[in-house]
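Homework help board

Subject: predicted structure for assignment chain

Our instructor gave us this sequence and asked us to write out the predicted structure in C-alpha cell form, then describe one feature. I got the C-alpha cells but I'm not sure how to describe them. Can anyone check?
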Amino acid sequence: MARTSNLSNFLTDVASAIKEKKGDSTNILASNFDTEILSLPSQGVYQSKQMTINTNGNYEIIPDNGYDAIEILRLNIDVPSGSTDSLNVFVQENEPTIKKGIWLQTNKQLEHIYGDDDIFIAGEWKPDGRYKDIPYEFYNGPAVAIGTDIYLFGGSMSTRYAYKYNPLTDTYTRLTDIPYAFYDGSATTVGTDIYLFGGSGYSYIYAYKYNTLTDTYARLANIPYNFISGSAVAVGTDIYLFGSAYNSSYYTCAYKYNILTDTYTQLTNIPYSFSYGSAVAVGIDVYLLGGSGNNTYAYKYNTLTDTYARLANIPYNFISGSAVAVGTDVYLFGSVYNTSYYIYAYKYNTLTDTYTQLTNIPYSFYRGSAVAVGTDVYLFGSEANKRKVQVYALESSTYANNSVVIAQGRYYQTGYGIELYNDDLFSSPMLYAFADAWFYTTEDGIITDIPTYYGNGTQWVKFKN
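My C-alpha cell output:
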C-alpha cells in the first residue's frame, strides 16, 4: 500500500489496507503507512485541542477551551465500523487532574504528534510479527542481499526452493528452483550474481551461479573437496571457501575460487577445525568465527598474504549461528550450543578487537541466516522457528523535534493494554500502541523514551520507563 503524505485519505487508506490484507474492512488490525497526525504551533493558544477524523477521510482541529499552553491532545477516531473512540493524550510534567487516557511525562514543548507503523530504535528489535512469514520452512540455508532485495536459497532437507524478498513491500517472489537439493550449502554475491556452493546429499562438490537479472542458473566447475556447512565469502572477483563438516580431513580446508577463470586455488589451511562457523568479509580481510571444533575461536584471514591472525575469543560458544558484516563491525546472532545461547547477539568491532553484547534475539535462533540491508539486519528462519523473520535496527527512526511518536497498527496485549480495554476507554480496536510512545527531543537527536502512564479514571499507572 502506498504511504500517505497527509490525512486527507487516512481512513480510506486504512480500510483499503485491511480489505487487501484481511478481507474485512470493519476490523482495524494493521496499517501500512506513517504520517503526521497533527502538527501543533510552537506557541499554542489553547490548553486542549481535539482532532476528529471522520469516515470520509476529513479531519478537524477544534479548540476545547482557551488556556495559554498546549498540554492535552484528544484523539477522536471514527473507525470504519462506525464506532468512535476518544483518548486523552497528556504531554506535561505535572500529573494531570483528569486521570483518564495516556500521560507522557515531560517538560518539553510539544509541537507534533506522529503515528507510525514502523517505529524503530537503534540497538533494538523491531516489533514481533511486523514482517510476513517465510513462505516455506527455512533453516540451514543461506540468505544474501543484492541492493535492497534479499534472496533465500534452499534451507531444509531436499529443498530446491528459491525466493526473493523485498523488504520495502514485505513481499516474497518465487524464483526458478535451484537445480539440485540445496541444504547446508553456502552462498555469496558478486555484482548481480549469486554463487551457490556445496550442500548435503550428493551435492558436496556442486557449484552454480544464479543470475538475478535473468532468473537462471549456470553450472560451474566442481569444488575440489566435499563442501558442506562451510562458509563462502566474496572479496572482489574471488570467492573464498573455508572449512567443511564432511569429515575431519576437510575441517581446515581453504580454497579460492576465481569467477573470471572458473578455477580453484588451494590456500593455507585454517588454524583450527572450522565447520558450522561463520565467515564474513571486511575490506580485504575475512573473519572466521566459531564453529563446531573450537566454538569460541576467531581468526582474521588476510587475502593478500594468505595468512591467519588469532583474534580475541568470542564471549560465548558460537556454532550454527549467523554473522553479518556492517561497515567495520561484525554482528553475531544465536548459536546451537545450548538453549542459553539461542538468543545471544554480539557486535564485534574489527578496529578494537572487542565484543559488545546486544539486546537478546526475541526468539531461538540457530541454523538460520542473517543478512544486512540498509540500516537493518534481517534474521530469517531457524530450526526452532522455521518461517520466522526478525529485524534488528542499526539506526533509529527520526522525526521533527519535540514530537510524540505513537505506534500505529498493532495491539499491546498485556498489562496496561488490558486495563485500558477493561476500563472501557476503547469501544473498538484503536490504531495506536502506546507501549511504543516516544518523545523526539532536540538535545539528543533521537527518539527518546519518556515516562508514560495510563489513567483508569481514578489514578495514573506507570507502564513504561
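Reply (TA_rk): Your C-alpha cells look well-formed. For the description, you could write something like this. Helices lie at 10-22, 416-422. That's the kind of observation they're looking for.
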